[in-house]
Amino acid sequence: MSRLIVVSNRVNPPSDEGVGTAGGLAMALAAALREYSGVWFGWSGETVETFTGQISMQKVGGVTVALVDLEEQDREEYYDGYANRTLWPIFHSRTDLAAYERSFGEGYQRVNRRFAETLAPLIGPGDRVWIHDYHLIPLAQELRRLGVANRIGFFLHIPWPSRRLLTTLPQHRELVESLLAYDLVGFQTRDALEAFSDYVERDLDLTIVGGVIAAEGRSTRIGAFPIGIEGEAFADLARGETARAAFDRVRLSQAGRKMILGVDRLDYSKGLEERFLAYEQLLADHPDWAERVFLLQIATPSRDAVEAYQEIRARLDGVSGRINGAYATVDWVPIRYVNRAHRRDELAGIYRAAHVGLVTPLRDGMNLVAKEYVAAQDPDDPGVLVLSRYAGAAEQMEDALIINPFSREETSEALGQALAMPRAERIARWRRLMDGVSRDDVAAWRDTYVAALDLEGADGEHEHGDSRKVS
Length: 471
Ligand code: GDG
Hints:
By secondary structure, the protein is α/β, with parallel strands linked by helices. 43% of the residues lie in helices and 20% in strands. It contains 16 helices and 16 strands. The strands form two sheets. The chain has a ten-stranded mixed β-sheet with strand order 3-4-2-1-5-6-7-10-9-8, sandwiched between helices. The protein is globular. The model is unreliable at 458-471 (pLDDT under 50). The chain binds GDP-alpha-D-glucose. GDP-alpha-D-glucose (GDG) is lined by residues 21, 23-25, 157-158, 227, 263, 265, 298, 300, 341-344, 347, 364-369, 372.
C-alpha cells in the first residue's frame, strides 16, 4: 500500500488531544498521519557517543514514529548550529544574529546524509515522502543519490528570504539547487513563493512555467500552501470543561479588566519586546486605560542552548520589569509575563477569555496562534485579533487589525481601537475570520499539498517511476 512518510527534525505527535503541549507543526503532522497511514521519521532528540543509524519504532497517539539518535557534535553543528544559528536568523531577516561557521554547514550536510541513509531502507514502492522544514532542505538530494525515485515533497514552515538576504549565506546556491531534487516545494505564502521564484530566475537563470521549474531532466513544482489548524476541533476544545475552568479562573482574576493576550515561543522573531513597548505606549498615551486593562504574555522558552535566545529572554525580563515598575499600582500589574507551558485545552480557555489577541511577529512563516485565537472565541462576544503584517497569516486574515509591529504608535493605536471596538463590528470581523479558519484548515492544507505532490511535471511526463531503484 502507498504510504505517506513524513520526515521532520523532531518527532512529537501529541499523545492525547488537549493534554499535550505539542506545537502547531506537531498537531498538523499528526493529523496528516492519522488520515493517511504512514510513518513519521526524525531525530529522537537524544544523543549517543557514536551514530549507529539504529531506528527505534514506536506507536504514539495512533501514529507510527521512527526515531534515530544523533551524536553530540551533530546537535551542536546541525541543530543548534546551522539550523538555529544560521538558517533561522537569515530566513527571519536577522543576518545580524547569523553565524556563518563552516563546521555548521558540514554538520548540516552530514546529518542530512545520515538521515537519508537511515530512511532509505524504510521507503517502499509507491510511498510518498513529505519532508518538513529548514533543518532538512538537502534531504531529497541525499535520498536521490541513494537511488530513491519516489515522489518527494518539501514544505517550508518559515519565511523564504529575499535574494539579498539569502546571498549572505555562503552556500546559498547549493542550498537552493538541492531543492530541485524535490517533486514539490511548498511555501506558506505567495510572498515566500515570489521571493524563491525571484532567486531561481535571477540567480540560477532558470525559467518557471506554470509553477514548474525544469532543470537537468527533472521538474520541480512550486506553490503556496498556507498551513491551517484543526479549526472546528479547536473551537470545541475552547468550549470544553478544562477550557471553561481556565476561562473562569482568568476572568475571575481579571476583576472586570480587559485582557490583551500574547502566546509565543520565546523567540526574537516574535516581536515580543516591540509588543511590550507598544503596550507601554498605550498606557502612556491613554492614562484612562490604566488599571482597566492588562497584558498577559505567555512565552515558553525554546532553544535555550543558543545565546541569542538567552539574550532575548533576559531583555524581556528587563523590559517587562521596567514597565511594571513604572506603571503598577498596589492592586494592578500591567504585564503578567509567564514562561510556563500550558496544556492545549487550558490555552484554548485563556484565548477565549482575552478581549484582544496580540500577534506581532517581525517575521513569521504563518503563525498558528492567530488562527487558534480566532477559533477559540465566543461567537456572541468575540475578541479582536491584532496581527502583524509580517506574519504569513496576514495574507489570509484581512479582517484582523493589521499592523506594522516595528511602529509602536501604529500598534498602540490598534490596541486602543480593538479595546473600544463595538460588539457588532467585533462579531462581523470575527465571523469572516472564522469562516476562513474553518475552511482553510489543516485538513485542507494537507490534502491540497498531497494532491499537488501526486501531480506530474508540466509536460505530463513521469520524471521518475514510483518504485525505488538502486543505482
Ligand atoms: C513554525 C513557524 C508556523 C505556544 N505556547 C504553548 C503552546 N504553544 C503552541 C501554540 C501554537 C504553536 O505553539 C506555535 O505555533 P506558531 O505558528 O505560532 O509558531 P512556531 O513554533 O514558530 O512554528 C510558524 C508553524 O511553524 C507551522 O507551520 O506557523 O510561522 O515559525 O500552536 O498554541 N501550546 C501549548 N502550551 C503552550 O504554553 N499547549
